[in-house]
Each structure stands twice: as C-alpha cells, then as structure tokens.
C-alpha cells in the first residue's frame, strides 16, 4: 500500500508540477499579453491624439481655404469691374474719336469750299473775269488720319469733284 500511496503521491506531484508549470507559463503569457495590451493601448491613445490633432489641422486649413477663396473671389470681382469699366471707356473713346474725325472732315470740306470761293472773289476783284462762261472742275482730295499717341490708327481719303461756272 505504501508503494501505491507513494506512487500516487509521485504521480500527483508530477501532475501538480505540470499544472504549476502550466500556471506559471500561463501567468507569464498573461503578463506578456497584459504588457502588449498596455503597449497597444498607449499606441492607440497616441494615434487618437494624433488623429484629433490632424482633425484640428484639417479644420484650420479648410477655414484658411475658405478665407483665401473669398479674398480671391472678391479680388476677381473687383478686377472684372475694372476691366468692364476700361472696356466701356475704350468704346466711348472710339466713339468720340469717330465723331471728332467726322467733324474734322466736315470742317476741312467747308474750309476748302471757302478757299475756292475766296479765290473766285479774288479773281473777280482783280478783273480776271472772262465774258464767256467757263466751266472749271477741280478735284479735291481729303486725307484724314486718326492718330493716337503719335501713331496712325485710321486713315481714309475722299476725292471730291468741285465744278465752278464762271462768266
């Protein structure tokens, strides 16, 4: 009996040692897992802090982008208004130049007609009048140039035939 008790005790001690070794290994594995879990929790916490920081950066950048977009939009509107005004001014200037050109051409024709009348009266006063009727034709060419800043931007010419009847 003693043998069997000792044998049982030996087996139980072996089993106890095995269980104790398993418990010891499990405890070590548990401590390792707890350490790894704590490490991963710290890593997760760091990632959450970094994510929150990135969210704040994104919000700040979106705010800056909105402000910048608004500034450029306002500046573009101002520049477009200036461009429209300059185009209107240019159109008005062209109309004024055309009116001035037309007025100049009319005045030039009047001047030429007056010069011809003066020449006729001069001949009459100087006794150059002939008794027979003379038909005199003169060609008069009017050249009109429009200049801006010293450069010719438009040129036109008109030939007018003037007929005079003299006695």
TrEMBL record:
It comes from Dissostichus mawsoni. This is IF rod domain-containing protein. One of its GO terms (molecular function) is structural molecule activity. It comes from the Eukaryota. Residues 16-131 form a coiled coil. Signal peptide: none annotated. Belongs to the intermediate filament family. Residues 1-132 form the IF rod domain. Keywords: Coiled coil, Intermediate filament. Pfam families: Filament (PF00038). GO terms for cellular component: intermediate filament.
């Amino acid at each position: 009996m003693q043998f069997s008790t000792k044998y049982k005790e030996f087996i139980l001690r072996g089993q106890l040692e095995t269980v104790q070794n398993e418990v010891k290994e499990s405890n070590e594995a548990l401590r390792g897992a707890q350490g790894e879990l704590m490490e991963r929790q710290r890593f997760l916490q760091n990632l959450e802090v970094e994510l929150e920081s990135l969210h704040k950066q994104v919000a700040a950048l979106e705010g800056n982008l909105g402000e910048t977009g608004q500034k450029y939009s306002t500046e573009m509107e101002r520049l477009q208004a200036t461009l429209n005004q300059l185009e209107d001014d240019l159109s008005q200037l062209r109309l004024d130049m055309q009116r001035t050109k037309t007025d100049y051409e009319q005045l030039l024709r009047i001047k030429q007609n007056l010069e011809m009348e003066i020449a006729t009266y001069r001949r009459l006063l100087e006794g150059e009048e002939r008794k027979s009727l003379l038909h005199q034709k003169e060609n008069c060419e009017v050249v009109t140039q429009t200049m801006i800043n010293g450069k010719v931007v438009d040129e036109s010419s008109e030939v007018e035939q003037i007929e005079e009847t003299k006695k």
